[in-house]
Design goal:
CATH architecture of one domain: 3-Layer(aba) Sandwich
Strand order of the largest sheet: 3-2-1-4-5-6-11
Largest sheet: 7 strands, parallel
Structural class: alpha/beta
CATH topology of one domain: Rossmann fold
Order of helices and strands: EHEEHEHEHEEHEEEHEEHEHHHH
Distance between the termini: 45 Å
Helix content: 40-55%
Length: 353
């Protein structure tokens, strides 16, 4: 039985389709028989969309074009989000404002007698739930305790859309997502290619949950099923330490990685310096060109707020039991796919180099 058969003939609108998760999700949607439309910006690279994908231009910041894009769709998958920001305002401006515009557009469609999606799948984050170092980790029903601006913004997105959509909204909260095409973890892979990696804190394991991007795509599609409801977590079902996660990168590259357990005080200093550099760059860019930088540094004070916690674990049992989620990629095969993808793009050195 095809577990994705619920998508056959369905009109699916996706935000974030040109990004990391999107490049893995869109082919799965098309293969399942969905009619896929990707919401894009005027500056988006449409060559990244797989053949058979339609594109519609709209603005999540201003709301322009959202009414027309959403009206008549059967399923809406919202993945677009700011992952790296320099301030609380950055995350609120990008993530919460987009949710407000989407909720407003949905209400306008209903008021005009149009058809809003019967199912909206929001790709949120474990950061919205908060940290946990005790297995099995965060689960559906636990009280959210975000510790970062990013986490709070994702929780606010959940709340805005939940108030607007009620039980039509299904939320999936992935942990660390890795795989080919990811720019967020690319610096970590590049460090591992040089034989070095970092785990936050001295004399501690820092347990984490992780999921390969292909399994995250599977989870998203399952959350679009008619019987899906509430909040789900996805992972590969294993508890990893950050050191083991980074060593697996080295194994996939064919060499050993030395993991440095750095004190939190030192990580705080480096995060502050990186954030300061990002702020100065952003100020200079706005002064000279009037534009904002495309992204903040991957390592900044907000990511330090997450790194100083004792661990990030989540429990995917509800997704398995209710929707039939079965992760296909263990850490070894997932890292091999990621490394091979980076090498094909010239982002990592080839074998033996």
């Amino acid at each position: 039985m095809n577990v994705f058969s619920h998508l056959a003939g369905q009109r699916v609108l996706v935000t974030g389709g040109t990004g990391f998760v999107g490049r893995h999700l869109l082919p799965c949607l098309l293969e399942a028989g969905a009619e896929v439309t990707c919401l894009v910006r005027p500056s988006s690279r449409l060559d990244r969309l797989p053949p058979g994908t339609a594109a519609v231009t709209a603005d999540l910041n201003s709301g322009q074009g959202l009414h027309a894009a959403l009206d008549g769709q059967d399923i809406f998958i919202h993945m677009a989000a700011l992952l790296f920001g320099l301030s609380w305002q950055d995350y609120l401006r990008a993530n919460a404002r987009a949710a407000h515009q989407l909720a407003t557009a949905m209400a306008d469609i209903t008021a005009a007698g149009g058809q809003t999606p019967r199912r909206t799948v929001l790709v949120s984050s474990l950061a919205a739930a908060g940290p946990s170092a005790c297995p099995p980790g965060r689960a559906s029903g636990t009280v959210p305790e975000p510790v970062s601006a990013y986490g709070w913004s994702k929780l606010l997105v959940e709340q805005i859309l939940s108030r607007a959509l009620g039980d039509r909204l299904v939320i999936v909260r992935p942990p660390i997502i890795y795989g080919s095409g990811d720019q967020g973890l690319l610096p970590v892979f590049q460090g591992a290619a040089r034989g070095l990696a970092v785990s936050p804190g001295l004399w501690r394991d820092f347990p984490v949950s992780a999921a390969h991007v292909r399994d995250v795509a599977q989870a998203i599609i399952l959350c679009a099923k008619p019987d899906a409801s509430g909040i789900y977590y996805c992972s590969d079902g294993q508890v990893h330490t950050m050191a083991a996660f980074c060593r697996a990168m080295g194994t996939a590259m064919g060499h050993k990685v030395r993991v440095l357990h750095l004190p939190l005080a030192l990580l705080a200093v480096t995060a502050a310096l990186s954030s300061a550099a990002g702020i100065l760059h952003a100020a200079g860019l706005r002064l000279l060109t009037g534009r904002r930088p495309r992204r903040a540094p991957n390592w900044n004070l907000d990511k330090y707020r997450e790194a100083r916690q004792t661990g990030w674990l989540c429990d995917d049992m509800r997704l398995r039991q209710e929707l039939g989620y079965v992760p296909q990629m263990d850490l070894a095969s997932g890292m091999a796919e990621a490394v091979n993808g980076y090498r094909q793009e010239g982002l990592l050195p080839g074998p033996g180099r």
